[in-house]
Amino acid sequence: MIELRDMIAAKQITATEATQAYLDRIEKYDGQIHAYREVYTDRALERAAAVDRGEVTGPLAGVPIAIKDNLCTSWGHTTCSSKMLEDFQAPYTATAVQRLEDAGAVILGKTNLDEFAMGSSTENSAFVTTRNPWDTSCVPGGSSGGSAAAAGASLCAASIGSDTGGSIRQPAALCGVVGFKPTYGRISRWGLVAFASSLDQIGPFTKTVADAALLYEIMAGRDPLDSTSADVSVEPTQTETQPDQPLRIGLAKQYLNDNNTPAVADAVERALAIYRELGAEIVEVDLPHTEYGIPTYYIVATAEASSNLARYDGVHYGHRTDAPVTDMPDLYSTSRAEGFGDEVKRRIMLGTYVLSSGYYDAYYLRALKVRRLIKQDFDNAFEKCDAILCPTTTAPAFEVGAKSDDPLAMYLNDVYTVNCNLAGIAGISIPAGITDDTPRPLPIGLQLLGNAFDEARLMRIASQLENKLQAPRLTELQPA
Amino acid sequence: MTNNDQNNNPTNSGDIHITEDDVRHVAKLSRLKLSDDDLHHFTDQLGAVLAYVSKLNELDVDGVEPMAHPMDVTNVFRRDEPESLYTADQMLASAPDAHPPFYKVTKVLDDGSGA
Predict the structure, then answer these.
(1) Looking at A123-127, A170-174, A357-361, which range is the least confident one?
(2) How far is Cα A302 from Cα A287, in angstroms, rounded to an integer?
(3) Cβ neighbours of residue B100 closer than 8 Å, sequence gap 6 or more
(4) pLDDT of B84 above 80
């Protein structure tokens, strides 16, 4: 992406040519990938032309970017891949998207997701299942599966997603791209359709760590429109700089177990060898509450979701039933039943249950206490190390349909990613190799977790590994 | 679930049992109209998830401070000055049915006959 940006700046290629090239690729390949929900051909070309006329400038001038369809824009639709918002046109633009446009980016379109960002495969989209560009019989991961697939298939120069329990890092791993979730509060959530407000965070999908760092720096920083956005200065990431020495890489036994497929376990070993060679010290850290992350997450996230999604009432915006109704509660209940898919309904009901009278203490309050224990695990670990190395997922992409009837099996996809959100720390997934024991090669991702507001160091540590790993890229898409 | 809290308290029992009546009640609280088929299906699935999350009962959390948010957030106040970011018409444009400057909904009051 930075290369393309520099070529446009040096007038080796026009922004219009770059944008048209991506639009052509979308036209040619997206019929099999289904990464996009909506493509803004005319608007993108107009923006690109403005860059070429010198009217739009900035560190992303002319760079074509895709955004997840749960980020509001004052143009087009913002659907969250839900029937509830199928016709919704937001009156305003999300701060993160606005900052990208202010930096000169060309927004190509909106990408598919699991409905309201609830899922790990993008199969929960009310409209279409996105396919993994490495093997279209497999899922791209989720919930930001459209953004991950678009970045992986080079249907954009980079893309933006959101991560509540792994929804950037997990699909990034499965699609062979870099996916970065900054510290909670780093990037304004204004205009990001709320799922779980104490966990949601926006972040980029890119080909390289340096690209992710640039997009992060542009989007990050205090925003008066989001009172939970952090008022902490954004340090330049400087990925070309060596991390401070001596570098200490943390390794937790809780992330290294028999659930990891051999390809994943091998990737961890390769990364450790690289860090050792670079002179890093490998430090054993203990994260004893790791296994409680998924149950804690599914209580906290659903509780918050049940509250956030109460706003869809069939009155103010979104779907309203055409069926005859008897009174207002019937209007709400019928509209919501028609507008929401099964996974969203399950999570709303689970969240309502754990918050309800008689169950609040046993479930919700207990989960908040375990959340504290998980956070303390990380606090203790980061006293001993600069970043924690672990897999992003236990296994590469699975086949479409393999887990769609078993919500619990689907939830366990996020076993290595949710604790980062519960603790509010930063995490990045980088491509670490490909499988040789699947019908087609599938990418493997490695995750590095860094302490809150320590993104700059985390990016330097990740960049160092990326340079040595030289993971294979997807060069050619399967013929349609 | 309103009447049998004592028997159904998950802290006292590892045996999580959620009934179709429980799910019917939760669906009502959630404003979701469910068919009988849905109820049956969701009862099984929610039961499995609740059984799984009861794993948290293995931990002793006495004295642990609950963590509702990753940051030490406090309430943020702004000056109480009126500002107009969007007009009523702009916001009403998203409504499924409107009678500007009002949202239009189904009849909520009866006709006064007491029926």
Answers:
(1) A357-361
(2) 24
(3) B88, B89, B92
(4) no
What is the residue whose two structure tokens read 């500002």? Answer: B83
* Structural domains for chain A: 1-480 (3.90.1300.10)
pLDDT at B115: 44
Strands A443-450 and A387-391: antiparallel
Q: What percent of chain A has pLDDT over 70?
A: 99
- Contact yes or no for A172/A204 (Cβ under 8 A): no
The answer, yes or no, to whether ipTM is higher than 0.85 is yes
Q: Is residue B112 part of a domain?
A: no
Which residues in chain A have their CB less than 8 angstroms from residue B72's CB? none
> Measured between CB atoms, which of B10, B31, B42 is closest to A346?
B42
For tokens 């393999």, what's the residue?
A402
Task: Using alpha carbons only, give the angle A259, A262, A263 rounded to the nearest 5 degrees.
Answer: 115
3-state secondary structure of A253: helix
DSSP state of A360: I
| Tally of domains within chain B | 1
Report chain A residues whose CB lies below 8 A from the CB of B42: 345-346, 349
pLDDT tens-digit readout, A48-67: 999 999 999 999 999 999 99
